[in-house]
Specification:
This protein has eleven helices and 13 strands. The protein is an alpha+beta fold and 552 residues long. Among the domains are: 107 residues, 2-Layer Sandwich (Beta-Lactamase); 67 residues, Orthogonal Bundle (Helix Hairpins); 151 residues, 2-Layer Sandwich (Heat Shock Protein 90). GO terms for molecular function: calcium ion binding; phosphorelay sensor kinase activity.
């Protein structure tokens, strides 16, 4: 049914308002966990290069295991690179030395086929053409011989083919070799790229102006092929070694990190413990195998166990202290009820039996006011003490619709400066609860709205049913100035007063909302508050079904 004043009859035409449901906060902050090994490895490598990089920049948050594997693979990669380069340079030098030796032998066969002393003689192209040793047995296939006359004409430009036949070099190769031979001033060995391929050549320049020049060369194809095969084999081997080391290292490091993961699991369990239970179970400890202080991980586990023991001892001390405080408050509250009742009684007797001046009557009224305030404080303390002891409420079937209506009507009669409204369903809403305690919850919330708002404020008491959660929902809303945001997190703490958060002149003890929360929790329910300027609402949820165990 719609909103109406407590004094108005409920109209069947009034529409029931839908209860506001508290939204479920979305889970966030959980980054996707890629299963790709190389993604983790790349992220770990990035984190090593830039330790200050954020998870968004890395694309993945690398674990310590991934970092260690990345370090291992990187170290192996650097080692393979150094070894490969060193071996490549050594092999290259060896092959080129061998090629130079072969070139020298080939040159000797051409210049002086029967001589091994390497003595240089004048080159005569006509003599070379007539020589039967120009491509005598023993010369390697691909060998080239070029002879240039003193006038610059290329007289000989031959190449020994694989089948043993002698072929003529291309015109471009003849020009290249001829130019090099004529321009040479001393005997030299060099590499040259010809159309026939890469060659190592030896240039024998003209001994004098009338002599001829000669170029002898052997192919470097075998050298290049050997070096290429070496690079491929070493590269593939290095990659295989790095991948194998990464996979093997992953398993080895995973096994090595297991104790640390178990310690982390214990720490996570402790982080999710409800310390209101006043103790940490001895089962929540790091296992002895993971708490040996002689190892690095064991030292962490041992320190965590020591920390848990200290926390457990502190919780036990706190529990004993709280128990003593609760017992003292209960005893003190109980003992204070008698003298407060006596003060009230003597005050009434004095008013009835003795003539008092106007000043005396004013003083007596102040005594009554402060006695009543002290009595309320004592009752509040006694109520909290009983709730803290875990005393089970007196459960019975309670019609919340009737109870909300009665409490709002009582509050309207006591505080006519405010506008009081109801928002109730057509059908009765019943729960299993302690009627007197639930009544106190509603009255405390209504009284809280009255005390902390100015006259003329609209206060609405609402009741609805959350069928999906099987809960009755009681709301008390007002359009007052609201509650300061920094005060909301501690609004249900004991002896906490929002003197600066909301207006109002009535003195409060700071226990009203603490009592409300304790009673609601004892009934297995929950209470929430939402506030902004112009709108504050307290929402109490109580289970509709079977009675729940009270919360100690």
């Amino acid at each position: 049914m719609g909103s109406y004043s407590p004094g108005e009859p409920a109209s069947p035409d009034n529409e029931a308002t839908r209860p506001l449901r508290a939204g479920t906060p979305a889970r966030d902050g959980a980054a996707p966990s890629p299963g790709n090994f190389f993604v983790r490895l790349r992220a770990a490598w990035k984190s090593m290069r830039n330790p200050e990089a954020s998870p968004e920049e890395l694309g993945y948050v690398p674990h310590l295991r991934s970092r260690l594997i990345a370090i291992l693979v990187a170290a192996l990669g650097i080692a393979c690179l150094i070894i490969g380069l060193s071996t490549y340079v050594t092999l290259q030098n060896s092959l080129y030395q061998q090629a130079q030796s072969d070139l020298k032998e080939t040159s000797h066969r051409v210049v002086q086929p029967t001589s091994r002393d390497g003595k240089r003689e004048e080159v005569d192209c006509s003599d070379l053409q007539k020589s039967s040793s120009l491509f005598a047995p023993g010369q390697a296939s691909g060998t080239i011989i070029t002879c240039v006359e003193s006038e610059g004409a290329v007289e000989i430009a031959s190449k020994l083919a694989k089948d043993g036949t002698v072929q003529t070099l291309s015109a471009n190769d003849q020009v290249t070799l001829g130019t090099m031979a004529l321009n040479a001033t001393k005997e030299e060995v060099r590499e040259v790229k010809l159309e026939s391929g890469l060659y190592l050549i030896k240039i024998t320049p003209k001994a004098n102006s009338s002599a001829d020049a000669q170029v002898v060369g052997i192919p470097l194809a075998n050298v290049q092929q050997t070096l290429t095969i070496f690079v491929i084999v070493v590269s593939l081997g290095s990659i295989a070694v790095m991948v194998g080391a990464g996979v093997a290292g992953s398993y080895i490091i995973r096994g090595t990190m297991k104790p640390l993961e178990r310690v982390s699991a214990v720490a996570t369990d402790v982080a999710h413990l409800d310390l209101e239970e006043h103790t940490i179970s001895s089962a929540v400890r790091v296992e002895p195998r993971d708490s040996d202080p002689r190892t690095e991980v064991g030292a962490v586990g041992y320190a965590l166990n020591q920390l848990l023991d200290n926390v457990n001892s502190a919780l036990e001390v706190r529990e004993r202290t709280e128990h003593q405080i609760r017992a003292f408050i209960a005893d003190a509250s109980h003992e204070l009820r008698t003298p407060l009742a006596a003060i009230k009684g003597y005050s009434d007797m004095l008013r009835w039996t003795e003539p008092l001046s106007e000043s005396g009557q004013s003083s007596l009224a102040r005594i009554d006011s402060q006695t009543e305030r002290m009595s309320r404080l004592v009752e509040d303390l006694l109520t909290l003490a009983r709730l803290d002891e875990g005393r089970e409420p007196k459960f019975e079937q309670v019609d919340l619709t009737e109870l909300v209506l009665e409490c709002t009507s009582d509050m309207q009669a006591a505080a006519r400066t405010h506008e009081w409204h109801l928002n109730l369903p057509d059908e009765p809403v019943e729960v299993v609860a302690d009627r007197s305690q639930i009544q106190r919850v509603i009255l405390n919330l209504l009284s809280n709205a009255r005390k902390h708002t100015d006259g003329g404020t609209r206060v609405t008491a609402g009741l609805s049913v959350d069928a999906a959660r099987r809960e009755a929902v009681v709301t008390v809303a007002d359009n007052g100035p609201g509650i300061a945001p920094d005060f909301l997190p501690k609004i249900f703490d004991r002896f906490t007063r929002a003197d600066k958060a909301r207006s109002g002149s009535d003195g409060t003890t700071g226990l009203g909302l603490a009592i409300v929360q304790a009673i609601v929790q004892a009934h297995g329910g929950s209470i929430q508050v939402q506030s902004q300027p112009g709108h504050t609402v307290f929402t109490v949820r109580l289970p509709l079904d079977a009675r729940l165990q009270p919360v100690a």
